[in-house]
């Protein structure tokens, strides 16, 4: 019988809102027992450091380069994850010895799969030493080295959730972070997945540029605005939407210039519609229509975005909670699940999810304690 691991997934997404943690007991296969979850918000000063790192990353040509702002951001990301892990363990009255693994995604600051380049900030070895828990990190590199896009990584976990649900019909997981991605899951089939367009990133950037706020809280601006048809058409003219999978995106792949002249309310409403249309563009590439769309990620909390999807979708749109899952914890749970698959030598990615040539494992294991040489 496969070993059951107690793994802690740690996720900081391209929305740059904070660190999400989720405890999962799993064998990296079908066994899933969900534990407590927690979120730890970044301060505005933290976000400023991360925005500077994203800007500095534009000129990178190697994934190990860390010029000034990137080195600062990597140290910050590692420290914030360490603080989050320690606080989580204290709150749950757990010792480090009670956790077998941390699955550490790190902070993506650049993703250019066409150049074989992806950069996630975070020192997995330092996190392992300082937390006293083994850490699996750098989970995208092996996929890229074998011809894949390196993203999305979560589909293996989506497939496990779908199987555990007993739903018995195809479902489309819609994960809305800074970038949106989808996974088509059908009973007995390998998952099919890709990034589909902007998630929260353009809306967040709009709000920050116009108001200094990090997001459109409760979708209030978008709900007060009207979609500008001409601007939406210009946004949807991007060639990415017509390109077949496999495909993946950098956070800053899209330009919001078409909404620059609109009021903040109309701009937010138009960007919500753009995100929804990008997500639904993936249906053209599904082998058959899914029975339902399952929303997860930060965007599932945006009423304007959920409304835009429900108004446009040809199939029912449901939240992950309708199936007994935590929509905000799924990505963190996924990286716990992937960490276990990594140490068990199981595939993290598949031809249908990233375009990799064959099912591929990945990740690097940093030990908390290294035995002294004999």
UniProtKB/TrEMBL annotation:
It comes from Rhodoblastus acidophilus. NCBIfam families: PRK09585.1-5. InterPro entries: Anhydro_N_Ac-Mur_kinase, ATPase_NBD. Pathway: Amino-sugar metabolism; 1,6-anhydro-N-acetylmuramate degradation; Cell wall biogenesis; peptidoglycan recycling. Catalyzes the specific phosphorylation of 1,6-anhydro-N-acetylmuramic acid (anhMurNAc) with the simultaneous cleavage of the 1,6-anhydro ring, generating MurNAc-6-P. Is required for the utilization of anhMurNAc either imported from the medium or derived from its own cell wall murein, and thus plays a role in cell wall recycling. This is Anhydro-N-acetylmuramic acid kinase. It is an enzyme of class 2 (transferase). Keywords: ATP-binding, Carbohydrate metabolism, Kinase, Nucleotide-binding, Transferase. Belongs to the anhydro-N-acetylmuramic acid kinase family. It catalyses: 1,6-anhydro-N-acetyl-beta-muramate + ATP + H2O = N-acetyl-D-muramate 6-phosphate + ADP + H(+). Pfam families: AnmK (PF03702). Its EC number is 2.7.1.170. GO terms for molecular function: ATP binding; kinase activity; phosphotransferase activity, alcohol group as acceptor. ATP binds at residues 13-20. It comes from the Bacteria. One of its GO terms (biological process) is peptidoglycan turnover.
């Amino acid at each position: 019988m496969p070993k059951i691991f107690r793994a802690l997934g740690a996720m900081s997404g391209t929305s740059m809102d904070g660190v999400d943690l989720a405890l999962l007991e799993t064998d990296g296969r079908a066994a899933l027992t969900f534990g407590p979850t927690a979120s730890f918000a970044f301060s505005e000063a933290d976000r400023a450091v991360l925005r500077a790192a994203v800007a500095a990353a534009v000129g990178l040509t190697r994934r190990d380069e860390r010029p000034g702002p990137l080195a600062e951001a990597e140290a910050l990301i590692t420290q914030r994850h360490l603080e989050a892990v320690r606080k989580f363990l204290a709150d749950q009255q757990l010792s480090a010895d009670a956790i077998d693994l941390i699955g550490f995604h790190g902070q993506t600051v650049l993703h250019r799969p066409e150049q074989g380049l992806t950069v996630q900030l975070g020192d997995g070895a330092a996190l392992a030493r300082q937390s006293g828990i083994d850490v699996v990190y750098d989970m995208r590199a092996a996929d890229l080295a074998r011809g894949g896009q390196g993203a999305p990584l979560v589909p293996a976990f989506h497939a496990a959730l779908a199987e555990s649900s007993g739903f018995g019909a195809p479902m489309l997981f819609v994960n809305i972070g800074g970038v949106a991605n989808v996974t088509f899951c059908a009973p007995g089939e390998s998952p099919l997945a890709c990034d589909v367009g902007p998630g929260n990133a353009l809306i967040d950037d709009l709000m920050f540029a116009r108001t200094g706020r990090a997001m459109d809280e409760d979708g209030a601006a978008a709900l007060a605005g009207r979609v500008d048809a001409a601007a939406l058409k210009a946004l949807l003219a991007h060639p990415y939407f017509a390109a077949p999978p496999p495909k993946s995106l950098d956070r800053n792949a899209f330009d919001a210039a078409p909404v620059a002249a609109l009021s903040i309310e109309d701009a937010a409403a138009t960007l919500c519609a753009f995100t929804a249309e990008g997500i639904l563009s993936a249906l053209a590439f599904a082998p058959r229509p899914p029975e339902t769309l399952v929303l997860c990620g930060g965007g599932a909390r945006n009423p304007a975005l959920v409304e835009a999807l429900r108004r446009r979708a040809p199939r029912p749109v449901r939240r992950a909670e309708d199936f007994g899952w935590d929509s905000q914890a799924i990505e963190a749970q996924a990286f716990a699940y992937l960490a276990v698959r990594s140490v068990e030598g199981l595939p993290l990615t598949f031809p249908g999810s990233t375009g990799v040539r064959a099912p591929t494992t990945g990740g690097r294991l940093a030990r908390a304690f290294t035995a002294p040489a004999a």
